Amino acid sequence: MPSSVVEVEDISPLTAAKRELLEETSYTSNNFVETGILSPNPANHTNLTHCFLAIDVERVTDLKLDVIEEIAVVLLPIEKLIENIDNGILLQTLHISSLFFALKKLGKVQFS
Questions:
Q1: Alpha-carbon distances, residue 9 vs 20, 46, 54, 58, 99 (angstroms)
Q2: How far is residue 16 CA from its own chain's centroid?
Q3: What is the CATH number of the domain that holds 51?
Q4: 59 inside domain
Q5: Is residue 22, in this structure, part of any structural domain at all?
Q6: Could you list the residue range(s) of the whole structural domain that residue 96 is in?
Q7: pTM for the structure as a whole
Q8: What is the full per-residue pLDDT of the chain (112 aa) written as tens digits?
Q9: Backbone torsions φ then ψ of 49, nearest 5 degrees
Q10: For residue 21, is it within any domain?
């Protein structure tokens, strides 16, 4: 679940999401869906987090990491990802919130 900031050269949050997915995972897609917008800390910050779901991704290149980055790409089925949340392995609030939006968009969240 790559994340970053919108850089000066990015014309939109979508452009940034596409760039980061490719740079941090070596995967891309022609099908990105914005799933939601979050305010990480509205009490004292004005930044927003734009959440996207890339559908039908494919690996197209090698990783392009910054010198200080150390990233391992791990592909998991949705069930294992949810299990990692339940077991406290995945703790980052924005990642979990973004995952909720993606699961909702995919019809994997049931409301009664």
A1: 13, 21, 21, 24, 27
A2: 11
A3: 3.90.79.10
A4: yes
A5: yes
A6: 13-105
A7: 0.88
A8: 888 888 989 999 999 999 999 988 999 999 999 999 999 999 999 999 999 999 999 999 988 778 898 889 999 999 999 999 999 999 999 999 999 999 999 998 877 6
A9: -110, 120
A10: yes
Cα 90 from Cα 82, distance rounded (Å): 9
* Side chain identity, residue 68: I
Q: For residue 11, give every residue at least 6 positions away whose Cβ sits within 8 Å of its Cβ, in sequence order, or none.
A: none
Is residue 112 in a domain?
no
How many domains would you assign to the chain?
1
* Inter-CA distances, 58 with 21, 43, 46, 80, 81, Å: 11, 39, 34, 20, 19
Q: At what angle do helices 93-105 and 78-86 cross, to 10 degrees?
A: 140
Tokens 């791990």: give the residue.
74
| Cβ 26 vs Cβ 39: under 8 Å | no
